[in-house]
Amino acid sequence: MENGFKLKRKRDGFIQYYNQRESKLANLTSHFIELIVEYIPDKNTIAIKVTDTGDGFNHQMAFKTHNENDDFGRGLKLLKEIASLVQYNDKGNEVYIEYILED
What we know:
Layout: H1 4-9, H2 13-26, E1 33-40, E2 45-52, H3 59-65, H4 74-82, E3 85-88, E4 94-100
Antiparallel strand pairs: 1-2, 2-4, 3-4
């Protein structure tokens, strides 16, 4: 959702954010999320690609404006910490992630 991270920083912002989100989800008619999971044996890696038909988000700005004390945004940082590769498309509605499996 556009400017979700800004809204969440406001007093009662989480409530407003989730109310807006719930309303938008209830009115969806033709959008979808595509999930592709692939095992890459020569790299002993699981690759995951998630694409949605939404507007995406500014992933670069989300990383720049994240504050360690925020109650949100930890998922993006967690992905970068546990995955061997995280790539977003320019629009921000697709992410490609690789996880190396332990031997």
